[in-house]
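Run log // design_07
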């Protein structure tokens, strides 16, 4: 039975009959400013901040705004079904929550609160390796709901192998491997405050509970936390990894593998040649390479190169239902939502995340219908026009 996502607007209007209005804005682009006002500058800067002067984050938004939807009329859109098949999974809508680390800096409910919100709305939750809650606890909070695991590929093969084994045992079905963070980028908002939560042991929960990681310590974490943090820093990521190394992941993960951070069509071809199942066209929300190509500008070329060989997903700059529509039209099969749900979490915990998901999908449902589509699968390049802006 298809979910009628657009009905959320009538729920809001009917609640208004008793004087109740939504606790958070329904225009999700307003959440960042609200978060800046209410939360501390360190955590907000860590989430909202970008590489360099922020030009890539601005380019992400501009690339989506430059493309305009061309609505079609007199098409039967009474019954709509937003469900899609992605990576062998049936999803109620073409949206998942992107992996974002250290969520405890935004709200004490942290990853379990966001994961429960995703589970309640039926959308996949992608857990970051750098979460502030161990993966097993997040899985327990979700029951049997769809969950994927994002891997930061450690220098230590045994730690990487252990993470994959734990994630599989905890019911994570898809592996999302972030490739664009072999090093931490130059991020002035964090640098100006010397704010890096990992150095305080925040965002290290999966490591500090991992037997392979603990085996590399001379003393237990609680006896020498600084040594544990330095061990984490030294093995967190590996700038020496190359395409042949993907065979290791394929050997130790028996589900779909998606490579996140692909922006060049040749990298999509290499991913397919390596036996991967999908790619996420992403520039890490502008957080890694200042001056990078906008993700939405890279998407059509990557989608064309992927053809039928890979599932193409998209993130970076998504703030609304019409952004999701545009990403689908440019060749994505599904979209990952990042910062807006994190702001929702920071402002109102699990209900805040649910609010963000429901707003996004109600707006997507209405945008599809008002543009002449009853399903995301019929959206394509002909539904967009590029403005000269």
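design_07 sequence
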């Amino acid at each position: 039975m298809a979910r009628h996502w657009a009905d959320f607007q009538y729920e809001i209007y009917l609640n208004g009959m008793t004087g109740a209005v939504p606790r958070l804005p329904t225009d999700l682009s307003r959440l960042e400013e609200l978060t800046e006002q209410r939360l501390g500058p360190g955590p907000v800067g860590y989430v909202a901040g970008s590489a360099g002067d922020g030009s890539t984050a601005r380019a992400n938004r501009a690339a989506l705004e430059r493309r305009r939807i061309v609505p079609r009329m007199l098409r039967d859109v009474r019954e709509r079904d937003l469900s899609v098949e992605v990576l062998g999974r049936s999803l109620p809508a073409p949206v998942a929550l992107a992996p974002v680390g250290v969520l405890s800096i935004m709200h004490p409910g942290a990853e379990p609160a966001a994961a429960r919100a995703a589970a309640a709305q039926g959308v996949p939750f992608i857990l970051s390796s750098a979460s502030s809650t161990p993966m097993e606890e997040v899985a327990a909070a979700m029951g049997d709901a769809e969950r994927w695991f994002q891997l930061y590929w450690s220098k230590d093969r045994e730690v990487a192998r252990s993470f994959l084994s734990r994630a599989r045992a905890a019911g994570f079905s898809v592996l999302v491997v972030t490739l664009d963070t072999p090093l931490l980028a130059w991020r002035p908002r964090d640098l100006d405050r010397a704010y890096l939560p990992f150095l305080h042991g925040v965002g290290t929960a999966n490591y500090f509970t991992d037997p392979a990681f603990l085996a590399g310590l001379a003393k237990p974490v609680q006896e020498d936390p600084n040594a544990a943090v330095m061990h984490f820093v030294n093995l967190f990521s590996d700038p020496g990894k190359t395409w042949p190394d993907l065979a290791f992941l394929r050997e130790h993960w028996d589900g779909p593998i998606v490579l996140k951070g692909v922006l060049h069509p040749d990298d999509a071809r290499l991913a397919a040649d390596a036996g991967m199942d999908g790619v996420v066209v992403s520039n890490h929300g502008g957080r890694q390479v200042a001056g990078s190509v906008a993700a939405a500008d890279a998407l059509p070329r990557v989608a064309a190169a992927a053809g039928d060989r890979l599932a193409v997903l998209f993130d970076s700059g998504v703030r609304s239902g019409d952004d999701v529509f545009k990403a689908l039209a440019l060749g994505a099969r599904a979209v990952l939502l990042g910062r807006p749900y994190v702001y929702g979490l920071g402002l109102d915990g699990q209900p805040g995340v649910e609010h963000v998901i429901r707003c996004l999908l109600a707006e997507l449902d209405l945008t599809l219908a008002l543009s002449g589509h009853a399903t995301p699968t019929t959206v394509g390049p002909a539904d967009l026009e590029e403005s000269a802006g």
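The two ends are 41 Å apart (CA to CA).
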